[in-house]
Write a structure and sequence with these properties.
- The protein starts with a helix and ends in a 13-residue tail after the last helix.
- The protein has 42 residues and is mostly helical.
- The protein contains one helix and no strands.
- The protein has one helix spanning 2-29.
């Protein structure tokens, strides 16, 4: 089960990296704080 545990840990680390990147992107863009990008201008 060591391999399965390692995979879970890797997934968790990757998820944390993605979350941190999203937070940095949101804070640096300033106005856009929503996670979903809006392509519609209506």
């Amino acid at each position: 089960m060591a391999a399965a545990a390692d995979l879970d840990e890797i997934k968790e680390v990757n998820l944390n990296c993605i979350l941190m990147a999203n937070l940095q992107q949101a804070s640096s863009s300033g106005t856009q704080t929503d996670s979903a990008p809006v392509y519609d201008t209506d």
